[in-house]
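Tutorial sheet, problem 5. The three components below are modelled jointly, 1196 residues in total.
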Amino acid sequence: MSAALELHAITKRFDGVPAIDAASFTARFGEVHALLGENGAGKSSLMNVAAGLYLPDEGWMAVDGRPVSLAGPADAAALRIGMVHQHFKLIKPFTVAENVLLACRRPSHRAGLAEVTEAIRREAAALGFAIDPAQEVGTLSVAEQQRVEILKVLVAGARILILDEPTAVLTDEEAERLLETVRRLARAGAAVIMVTHKLAEVLAFADRVTVMRGGRVVAVADPKTTTAAELTTLTVGSEIAPRTERRGTPGPARLVIADLAIEREDGRRPLAGASFSVRVGEIYGVAGVGGNGQTELAEALMGVLRPSAGAITLAEAGDITAAPPAARRALGLASIPADRYRWGLAGEMSVNDNFAIGHVASGRYGGWWKVGTRRLRVDAAAAIARHDVQGVRRGGGANAALLSGGNAQKLVIAREFSGHPQVVIAHSPSRGLDVRASAAVQQALCAARDAGAAVILISEDLDEVLALSDRVGVMSRGRIVAEFAAPADRHAVGRAMVDHA
Amino acid sequence: MTAFLVNWAAATPAFAVPFLFAALGLILSERAGVLFLGVEGFMLIGALAGAATILTLGPYPIVALVVSMLASSLVAILFAGLVVGLRVNQVLAGLAMVFFAGGLTALLGATFGWTNVAFSGLPKLSFGPLSDLPVVGRILFRQDLVVYLAIPAVIAVQYLLTRTMFGLKLRAVGENPQAADSAGVAVQGIRFVAVLMAAALIGLAGGYLSVGTSKIFVDGMSAGRGWIAIALVIFARWQPWRALGGALLFGGIEALIPRISAVGIQVPQYFMLMTPYLITLAVMVWIAVKKHGSFGTPAALGVPHVREERR
Amino acid sequence: MLERTARLTDETARLLADEAAAPAAGGPRRLRVFLEVRPAISPIADLLILLAAVAVGVALSAGILIAAGVPPGDLYYEFLVATLTDPQNLSAVMVRAAPLILVGIAAAIAFRVRFWNIGLEGQIIFGGIAAVLVGLGEVGPPAVRLALMLAAALLAGAAWVVLPLVLKLKIGVNEIISTLLLNYVAVNVLLHLIYGPLQDKIDNFPHSPELPAGSRLPLIGWEKLDAGLPLALAVAFIVFWVVRMSRGGLYMRFIHANDRMALAVGVPITLVTAATVLASGALSGAAGFLLVAGQEYRLTPSFFGGYGLSGILIAFLARSNPLGATVAAVLVALLFTAGQSLQVFFQIPSSAVQLIQALIVLVVAASEFFVRHRIRFARTGGAR
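Model answer (structure tokens):
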């Protein structure tokens, strides 16, 4: 078994911060090599370097023993490296064969299509599944689309396959079949690299595992001789996030979500009847693997996405399902969106304006004719100090776009919490933040809860959800499939996340 | 009555041609993801180039039409460079090109004396006995060359889009440039070429206006046909055969306007001139009302392409 | 200690990737040029790039004019010296500037709420028609006649933009095409009127009868300057105040900066958008009023000519800022006036002005690329 792919001391920085820090990695032909780590460990970034999508700042790469330098995905394809991404790169209106043809690029359309169709049938048969090359990709199920992605790289001649979180969107059964396929590919001589955060898969299917944490490679191990506990320690470190102190007991239900569903034009239902309730003075955590409807839930709660069915009821106010964001804010709803630059802040506007916009409607900062800038500035300065927003220049007059991620988030929180909200919807609030900023965010959420708000925390970070929540709901395929009370068993929650009822 | 209908039907194809070729060009560009709002202006460029060729080189209409296509493509290099290369907002650039071309053609036309000068243009072809058939003869067998090229053009564009590798890449780039990019397709290159090809067809449409129909160049002679073509393409769901239908519809309307008083219907002149625009507006409304989600719109239309993380 | 490094989050990727451009295709493998997005730009650098772009545009335009037969020395003289030093020319510039200010602001405020109001000319036409109807009909006592004419123009201009506005808000019809199509319709209405019911019976030319004395804007004493300019300046100031200081203006600026966030944060987008677009139409209508009641004193077949593109150009140069629009309007007025002299003395057709305007728009649009990106040189990976 020779070295198929070698990455040596790769470093890649974004915005000055290293996403990958001097990471080295070797994969051999004929083996299934798992790249294991939590969200944000750098696994996908490292493989993006291997696939020619990212240019490393430092380090070098070798394929089949020879050093190479990739200028783009085409170079990677020429070196017979194929990557199946987590977010499929398929052209929905095209057929399976057309998608594969696009990637394989034969000179003649007619001959190429025929060739590719034949190759698809052959490879699919070898791997044990059937697929109709003439079917439109948009009509295929997610698992089938994934197969198309795999066929794409195989027909293009890939011998080094990189699969990025392949089982993330599959049911248990489908995942099982995929992993069997993967194993078959490896036995046939390919080098298969599987990027994953799922321990169980690694133990069952991988021949070797490289563990990454915080952008660095921390260990290379043999799953046969390593225990799950050891792997867990390597992946998450030995510290477990401490649980925050509870204060007081939750009151009656304030926000009730009943059977919320959203149907898109193409028939997909990202939300398929989600139901849960949140009480006064509690944090309800919505856990789940990304892509199971969390974003749609958050948007429906914020009021920017109208549900096709179901109801959102606020105690004392009634049905707010169709209420626009302005009305919800007036009723005391605050939201911390996941994508702060898209939903949370207007970069071109000043920090002060971004703070004040939340309350302008209430008349606090002057009437229609003139906005009361003095009071605005005072309030903003106070809130900024209270929430420790750093990097604010020119007394709040500088653009909000100049704030770093952590401070931008704190500004959003400063705005949202300045009105003593009754309900807080926090969607991945600590995403992309460093330890200190995350802690500040979590503190703010707890403070809101202690002040009597009903807090919904939607997050893909299981640690965060488990540490903060009083109750945890697991979201899967657009529904809440299980609920746990704190202290929740991490194992049980994790299993519910990948279990599809 | 029959005479009226035959006259009308015989006149329609020539009026439909500019709409059709402009629409075909737009289809190529927009299916590659690039809005081509400058149609109005590029038609003027084609029109002027055609007129200029005949006025300077002599009565060679076919050469003139080829020059129209080339001139339009040449100017389109500027447009493509801006929107594909420099990622300029496609709407703004398109609008600016309309005015740019309008001003340029007027200036050149005045400076070189090409404006308001009549010339002999594209002759109608004759097919001998076939052309003398009572009804069918007039409608089908007494048109000029470009009209006869219309259907082959539709077939050619359709073939290009669906049966060639270039067409496959073009459609991919318009639907999902990220996917096309990671499949190794040169997104920018394909878009650039698509824009130039579109400009050639649009230039031909404009050239036909001066060389084929009016046989004169007048400032602003495209008279809004470009905008109508844009609506037409949406109406045709970016498909060449449907565009033909739409072109015939609008060609028919345009052919009808001068003839309607002959039937005894008295409509004030300027109100009649308004009709194409009002009908286009109605079509836009109808499209928007019908449209719910996927309608055939190229998914990446109007969005400049960026690789997620550029190296 | 559990370390978290900042990783490529969706937001960061978007921030980086937003309008990021490709490096030069191909090129040597070792050394590559590529572009990265600037997170923010200082207003001074922004202004400098804008001025540089305008300079380039002007230079190119000068080149075109010289190629069209204007001797370079005369070009400089006509454009700068004659226009600015001769009081007659200067007043012509200021007179021209008044409706341009209104139209520029009209375009600018509409763009701010992401509504491409290309129908400026149609709104000017209807504003002019309404004003002339009121003026010719001598509606109301002379003391308030002008105010009534202005009011009529405002209403007419706003009315002509209602349909595209409603179509966009309710069913998503693209406003560029709808406003444009209505332009063509408006021109035809105008032609119908001045060749028909409103034709001047005295000389049978295609224009309306002259407005009576009580329906004309008074001159304000200096050369040929009429009350239009002070009016336009007053309007500019009011708009500036509203945009900068009022609550509605704050909403407008948020919608412009990030309309999704504005929605999420509770800004009444529909209300603000509708109000702004209607105001835009009204302002264009007012420009029409200035044109007919200020100088021509009648409707003519092309009294609105050139104002559509000018409005867009002004809004664009001013980056949709009302005060900047005033300055830009004066510059465009300068261009027009000088253009007229060139037409008279060197037979350069008026379309040259349109060409120059479009050229400047294109150059400034292209320059935005440099505002948003920074060029960087780097080595490719693979070196040991």
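Marking note: Chain B has one domain: 2-117+134-290. Full credit if you identified this.
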